[in-house]
Amino acid sequence: MFSLEDSVCAAMHSRKKAGSLEMLSQYNAAVSLGFAASISPSSSEINPMRKASIKSFMDYPHCQGRIEPGPKPHDFASMGEFIVFLGAAARVIPTPKMRWRPLQQSRFVSSHWLTVQSHLLRPRLFPESPSPIENCNFKVNMTAQALTSDQKKDLTEIVKRLIAPGKGVLVLDESLCTMTKRFSCIGIENTEENRRCFRQLFVTTDNEISNYIGGVVLSHETFYQKCDDGRPFPDVLKTKNTVVGIKVDRGVVPLAGTNNETTTQGLDGLAERCAQYKKDGADFAKWRCVLKIREDTPSPLAIWENANVLGRYASVCQQNGLVPFIVPDILSEGSHNLKQSQFIVEKVFASVFKALNDHHIFLEGTVLQPNMVMPGYNCCQKYCLEEIAIATITAFRNTVPPAVPGVALMSGGQSEEDSTMLLNALNKCSLPKSWILTFSYGQPLQISAAKIWGGKDCNVKMAQQEYLKRAKALSLASEGKYCPPTSSRVSHTSESLFISVYISNNPNMKP
Amino acid sequence: MPQVYPALSAEQKKELSDIALRIVAPGKGILAADESVGSMAKRLSQIGVENTEENRRQYRQVLFSADGRIKKCIGGVIFFHETLYQKGDDGVPFVRTIQDKGIVVGIKVDKGVVALAGTDGETTTQGLDGLSERCAQYKKDGADFAKWRCVLKISDHTPSPLAILENANVLARYASICQQNGIVPIVEPEILPDGDHDLKRCQYVTEKVLAAVYKALSDHHVYLEGTLLKPNMVTPGHACPFKYTPEEIAMATVSALRRTVPPAVPGVTFLSGGQSEDEASINLNAINRCPLPRPWALTFSYGRALQASALSAWRGQRDNESAATEEFIKRAEVNGLAAQGKYEGGGEDAGAAGQSLYIANHAY
């Protein structure tokens, strides 16, 4: 990570050696210095110094008339100038009218997000000021507490209700295109009403469900939908003592200069959104980052960037009383074997936890939502349950600090039965675990119920029974007590079960 | 990126893991007897003994001639280079005396701190040059673990990001090289107790430092099950006006570890950092009674806190040797109990056990 001082010195030097600094790394430096220096200001104050800097910022030659959509890096004479510009921008607290994005993919300027308390950039804005480099007064308050003890207590209370032995999370936050695929499998149209009815099925299941499901993740649309009786979904869930969660990210965007790698957007105005969701009944949030394993990926940039954005998101959530679910999803596409997968997972998690530490995240008030360590879909080698369990838990033991209260695993496209057996194997594995290992499943909890429902009201009760059944099975699996029914597709109940490579569930291979 | 170039084979990993588990077996800790010649000068001058090689040999002999009682409470002994090649009066090399008691032999391999230019008196630690060959030789000569000490201090502007990064990195390089040579690395990022900072500040800094250390260990592909951590306990600075109970120190320490140390690490062996013998035992006991769940062994790697009484009982006199050895065995047994949270005494002992062993700006 570049220090503020380093970046500005580089900026000063680059004016003489144009092009000698690699653009992307300098951009990253600017972004990272933005991240590193963020202090949440009170948005109602704009002191005279800042008013002056807003004015001169707007007078800055390259800025004029270009507040929306904002100048691009190549508009500047050199990368150095661009960095100084970013720094100047960072000193400004934009008023709501001044929402601007200097770069299309920039996320770091939002309504009152960023203030750099430094006088280093003064010479650009106020040429008459003395050169400040030698008088750099950049002080980081190393003892500022991110959260009060009450805030920490609230977060840990939420986690206790959410993740307990025998309880996991139902994920109901599928995007619109995923819902199109799901509904087409059961032959119904993807309308808002159908989505409402579908989600209602799960939300209004018998109270018995609260023994198995501690929390439900909703998308924004579902969060504000109501049941047939007019009650909002969050209220219904709360009467069942289920914690309500909300997906807050805004999907993946490409990372330029990489092999189709992505980061995740959604930080803009995140604090206000979280505060509103909290008022409206949410107590936890979810944000998904995605990484792929190929010859040359995940690249160091992808790992660092996604870890960092997870750190930012988690920080904003905790400030607003929401427990952040940390989701570094490493996809199972590819032909890598189990060892390679474990290696990558460990590298990614080490970065994630370093970023969480750098962003002062209160680990006891978070939940990790990872995928299990799996071989790629196209890997020829077969692995038994125990091997997968050992690889997964070893990876976690090597990277996940004990302060993290729970790990809620994703199913990653596995079938209902396979995902239950795997969770069971993980909980039966003899390696010591310092966190609760439970589920945060979408499809494995929904698919059978969805098939039974088929869009018809008369099938709702039966579908709900099926959902209850799956939830109960997963509850047992999360305590290592699950016994598969002998009549199921699974051929035997002995310890060792070969999982044929997930061809039947590989989305790439579906007809 | 997905290329896995295994740093260690399965056999190497097993060997390292077994050694580490033997050192931190329940009720056992480490005697740090690796004081450099310069440090020994200070110790011996306190009891009016000349700092000669022979005197240093005799002093270590006092410790190593302890009888079978220390088998239950000492899992490892850290040697200084000179001592590794010394013999007892009976002609038996110290290494063999220790190994015959079932105790693992360790060796300090760093070469002291050097200044980091452009910082406020911060340092890194040198010793990487030829480290691989030295480790291979030490392994042949009986050592199964090693120790490397990095030093950080708390003040208004320290530890700086550079100091944290550099020390974490050099610890990871050292650890990597040790493991390649079948030696378990003890990773020691000591944060000095100098200063007037309070407990919260120390906890904050400890968490930042340990997070950086474990990120560096991950980057350098170090096998965590074959390492041990030797951190400071989280304590207020020596000049801090507030006093804290052992329970508060224990909570702060265990919380900091829970947030940064992955469960794969088999044991955390605390340094005593200038606490008195008594304090060091009481705090270790409180740590082991702390209600927070902890997946690693929490034990001791004490130098001064195990030796102070023995040293002052010895005073360089042959006649005092057995009394001095008794003092050492006593402290070792107390700490063995503390490492299981079973120590009931403490506090009443006057004399050497209660004296603060704080030396400002301590360097070994």
TrEMBL record, chain B:
Q: What is its EC number?
A: 4.1.2.13
Q: Which GO terms describe its biological process?
A: epithelial cell differentiation; fructose 1,6-bisphosphate metabolic process; gluconeogenesis; glycolytic process
Gene3D superfamilies, alphabetized = Aldolase class I (3.20.20.70)
Query: What keywords is this UniProt entry annotated with?
Result: Glycolysis, Lyase, Schiff base
Its pathway is: Carbohydrate degradation; glycolysis; D-glyceraldehyde 3-phosphate and glycerone phosphate from D-glucose: step 4/4
A GO molecular function held by the record: fructose-bisphosphate aldolase activity
Q: Which residues form a coiled coil?
A: none
* Catalysed reactions, as listed in the record: beta-D-fructose 1,6-bisphosphate = D-glyceraldehyde 3-phosphate + dihydroxyacetone phosphate
Enzyme type, top EC level:
lyase
Entry keyword annotation includes Translocase: no
Q: Is Acetylation among this UniProt entry's keywords?
A: no
Record-linked Pfam families: Glycolytic (PF00274)
| Entry similarity comment | Belongs to the class I fructose-bisphosphate aldolase family.
Record's protein name: Fructose-bisphosphate aldolase
In the UniProt record, what gene is named as encoding this protein?
A: ALDOC
